[in-house]
Design goal:
Distance between the termini: 28 Å
Radius of gyration: 17 Å
Structural class: mainly alpha
Order of helices and strands: HHHEEHHHEHEHH
Largest sheet: 2 strands, antiparallel
Strand content: 5-15%
Oligomer: single chain
Shape: globular
Strand order of the largest sheet: 1-2
Helix content: 40-55%
């Protein structure tokens, strides 16, 4: 309870200003469509290879894993990823909550026993996130923005934390290219809010360049 009380602060994001950035939002959406479509076409051979490897590594389950996440203004949508965990991993999560490595409304476990052998590599190089390009094409996500949380996580958010849901979620963002999984929940929220305050076309482009660098040289992913 001490953590939650320490986080109850005045809002720091000008939501009205963000809503009225029509030119930026239009250009961002246009860029998202073009860039994600090109990426899907170019990466389609990689998608097929990863799908085959997942089946060879653990053929009992599907190649694609989907999960309900909350986007802008807490709108629910189904987010897609390459499956990196065993079948039924969500049902086993309750037994692992006590081993959470992150304080706050987020679950991360460095030595998660549910991750498959191949899944460790998919996560380390962020390859498991590539199917989210489909979410971008559908308009549910952007290439750059705060990561979309789970409904049960948002249920624990303070009003201060909920500010990160004032914009469309993204495949990558400021905390992903800096601290990644080494970030605490509070640090993640503050980095997301910093991104929202600074976001613009050139800053988004900078985030994408940093993301490519993370693919080549992974940071604290697990």
């Amino acid at each position: 309870m001490e953590y939650r009380e320490s986080k109850i602060k005045s809002p720091s994001i000008d939501v009205v200003y963000q809503q009225h950035r029509y030119i930026y939002r239009f250009c961002k959406r246009l860029f998202d469509i073009m860039a994600s479509l090109i990426a899907v076409i170019i990466l389609s051979p990689l998608f097929l290879i990863v799908a085959l490897l997942i089946k060879l590594d653990d053929g009992k389950g599907p190649v694609i894993y989907s999960q309900i996440r909350l986007g802008k203004y807490q709108r629910p949508f189904r987010m897609y990823k390459f499956r990196s965990m065993i079948v039924g991993a969500d049902k086993k999560k309750a037994k692992l909550i006590a081993q959470n490595d992150v304080a706050g409304a987020m679950f991360k476990m460095k030595e998660d026993p549910r991750i498959t052998r191949l899944g460790h590599y998919l996560r380390k190089y962020s390859i498991d996130e590539l199917p989210q390009l489909v979410n971008v094409l559908l308009g549910q996500m952007s290439l750059v923005g705060p990561r979309p949380p789970l409904p049960r996580e948002v249920a624990e958010y303070t009003p201060f934390d909920k500010q990160r849901l004032a914009v469309k979620p993204g495949c990558t963002g400021l905390w992903q290219v800096t601290l990644r999984n080494d970030a605490s929940f509070e640090q993640m929220v503050r980095l997301d809010l910093k991104y929202i305050e600074k976001r613009g076309f050139w800053f988004d482009l900078y985030m994408l360049v940093r993301t490519v660098a993370v693919f080549v040289k992974p940071n604290g992913a697990y």
